[in-house]
Amino acid sequence: MKIVDFHCDVLCKLLLDERLTFQNGKAGALDVTYERLKASETILQTFAIYIPQSMNGRLEPILESLDRFHQYVLSCDEMVWVKSAKDLEACVRDDKIGALLSLEGVDGLQGQTPLLRTMHQLGIRAAGLTWNHPNWAADGAMEPRGGGLTEKGRLFVKECNKLGILVDVSHLSEQAFWDVADLTAKPVIASHSNARAICDHPRNLNDEQIRRIIGMQGMIGITYVPWFVSKEEVVTVQDLLLHIEHICALGGEDHIMLGSDFDGIDRYIKDLTHPAEVANLREALLKHYTASQTEQFLSGNALRFLSMQLPNE
Ligand SMILES: [Zn+2]
């Protein structure tokens, strides 16, 4: 069974430490590696450009991250760059590993819409307006004042819609989420967020938000960040299943995908510590769902969504 994963932070690690390599690297240095993507039968991995707070707010680190993507990721034999529905189709047909680029926080674009168009030209196909903190576009999920979108943030969402960049609501404040939901002409994604009813964390989605994403035909990437899954000391794959069950109960069976957050976390769900261990999640799912449902969660839903939402060419 193929896997699609909509969020990992491996580019951030490659940005911070040039000695790391994506292929044939030092054991344990990265969660997501070329070898593990192959072993896990990943058909598509989204690579987020996340800039650490100390370097954030400038364009250069974003461009450097793009360089790492080309140097380390796309240089691997079976990796192919997915920028369009046509690329995705070819990737599935030829049984390659697709790589999609997303931007996690637009701080470095400094409110300039032309730079967003440049990002699209450089292959960015999904973008979250903020990380956890506020910026020129919106307030993030951890900002106590809980503001929504700024005027520039609104322009940004409209431009994303026009360009064919998916808007990612995962890190937004709740108010900013609703501002985006009211404004967007295209379905949004929450690339790596779980259900707040199961684990009460500001990074998770409440039932109203989940229903709204489902209603607009958007997607929710179930994430393996242990503290978004459960408050328990040891978090298991079974705990993760509760989030899937909850979203299904709200009518979201066709709107569930995966958004691991590998390489963005330093604690893990037990037996779910890198892409090859997604096999353990698959086994657990198969005990509760049919093979076809399991396949939809692991890849089918995401592939169907992307084939409709990515630019054609
Ligand atoms: Zn994140």
Write out the CATH superfamily name.
Answer: Metal-dependent hydrolases
* SS-based class: alpha/beta
CATH architecture type: Alpha-Beta Barrel
Multimerization state: single chain
Distance, first to last CA: 27 Å
Bound molecules: zinc ion
CATH class bucket: Alpha Beta
User: Low-confidence parts, pLDDT < 50 over ≥5 residues?
Assistant: none
Strand count? 9
Mean pLDDT: 97
Characterise the protein shown here.
The chain is of the alpha/beta class. It has a single domain, classed as Metal-dependent hydrolases (TIM Barrel, Alpha-Beta Barrel). Helix content is 40%, strand content 13%. The chain is built from twelve helices and nine strands. The protein has helices at residues 10-16, 34-39, 60-73, 85-93, 113-121, 151-163, 174-183, 207-215, 226-229, 237-249, 278-288, 291-309; strands at residues 3-8, 42-49, 79-81, 97-104, 124-128, 166-168, 189-190, 219-222, 256-258. Strands 1, 2, 3, 4, 5 and 6 form a six-stranded parallel sheet that branches. The protein has a three-stranded parallel sheet with strand order 7-8-9. The structure holds zinc ion.
Q: What's this entry about, in short?
A:
With 313 residues, this protein is an alpha/beta fold.
Give the topology, please.
Elements: E1 3-8, H1 10-16, H2 34-39, E2 42-49, H3 60-73, E3 79-81, H4 85-93, E4 97-104, H5 113-121, E5 124-128, H6 151-163, E6 166-168, H7 174-183, E7 189-190, H8 207-215, E8 219-222, H9 226-229, H10 237-249, E9 256-258, H11 278-288, H12 291-309
Parallel strand pairs: 1-2, 2-4, 3-4, 4-5, 5-6, 7-8, 8-9
The protein binds zinc ion.
